[in-house]
Amino acid sequence: MKLFVSLPAGTREGAGDPRALVEIGRQADEAGIDGVIIAEHVVMGNHTDRYQWGEFPFPPEAPWLEPLTVLTAMAAVTERIVLTTGILIVPLRPAALLAKIVATIDHLSGGRLELGVGTGWQPEEFTAQGLDPEQRGQLLTDHIAACRVLWRDSPASFESATVSFDGIWCEPRPATPGGPPVLFSGTLTPRNVRRIVELGDGWIPIMGATLDDITSGVQQLRAALSAAGRDPESLQVRAPLPIERDGKRPDLAATVAGAGALEQAGVTEVSLPTAIAAKDLDGLPAGFAELADRWATR
């Protein structure tokens, strides 16, 4: 099981500074952390009350850096960490452009890119680009399906309800054959299970999913992969590692010790916020080193 750290977002210290985020990635790489995760919002509307998982923790004017740009810069200054999104709102970029950007980052990083993808929760991000938010599920499916073809075939042809092209080249294809791993977020509706089995490599459970939810979801997906002739043990699953506290302060040792239950449930990647490693950016190098050491000896 791999340990990822989630980069600061919204109003968190460093979230609006590209150089700070890139430096955090370099420090995580140097310390031995397995990967970094960056979240996304292209635009924000006023209706943060539409957020389905409690009160949205940031105001609409909070800064959100474009994640693929940040990961591109990070690829140039790191050697080993996995660079991933959590989540990339796929339909907000044209499919062919997304395929090209992803292939470029995959080459720059030496095949270290991974995509956590979904549709987001905010209609304004779609309407601002002339997209119908009611089509977001279809757009997600079609965009990733189109990318898979562009990452595989030269020339490439594809036809769907929202994306179509015929006899085009999108070179170079990714360094990772067939494209980087793609993990779909969300509940396991029949459509999402089909996406994961037909187009994906893994699953990101919905925020607030319990250990029982994850366990049953993994079992469901492994059965579906097996029925489709795919290796059920290849399933990647990313989930947050619950933070244990000693009073008000995070207890790093107890938090890391809790990873065993998630691993037993089938989780392959756990994530922690950078804030668990240090109170401020200056403390991150030492905090990451301690976190990596505790993880290695858990």
Nearest-angstrom radius of gyration? 19 Å
How much of the sequence is in beta strands?
Answer: 15-25%
CATH architecture: Alpha-Beta Barrel
Total beta strand runs: 13
Number of domains: 1
- Please describe the biggest sheet, giving its number of strands, its sense, and whether it closes into a barrel: 8 strands, parallel, barrel
CATH topology name, in short, is TIM Barrel
* Global structural class: alpha/beta
Oligomeric form of this entry?
single chain
| Helix/strand order | EHEHEEHEHHEEEHEHEEEHHEH
Q: Average pLDDT across residues? A: 96
Shape: globular
Query: Superfamily at the CATH H level?
Result: Luciferase-like domain
What is the helix fraction of residues, given as a range?
A: 25-40%
Determine the number of helices (DSSP H or I, runs of at least 4 residues): 10
Point out poorly predicted stretches: none
Query: What gap, in angstroms, lies between the N and C termini?
Result: 11 Å
Order of adjacent strands in the largest pleated sheet: 1-2-3-5-8-9-10-13
CATH class: Alpha Beta
Task: Summarize the SSE layout with pairings.
Elements (H helix, E strand, L loop, with lengths): L1 E5 L11 H14 L3 E4 L28 H11 L4 E4 L2 E2 L5 H14 L4 E6 L4 H5 L8 H17 L3 E4 L4 E5 L13 E4 L4 H10 L2 E3 L6 H17 L8 E5 L4 E2 L2 E2 L1 H6 L1 H7 L3 E5 L10 H13 L2
Parallel strand pairs: 1-2, 1-13, 2-3, 3-5, 4-5, 5-8, 8-9, 9-10, 10-13
Antiparallel strand pairs: 6-7, 11-12
Question: How does this model look, in words?
Answer:
The chain is 38% helix and 17% strand. The strands form three sheets. Strands 1-2-3-5-8-9-10-13 form an eight-stranded parallel beta barrel, surrounded by four helices. With 298 residues, it is of the alpha/beta class.
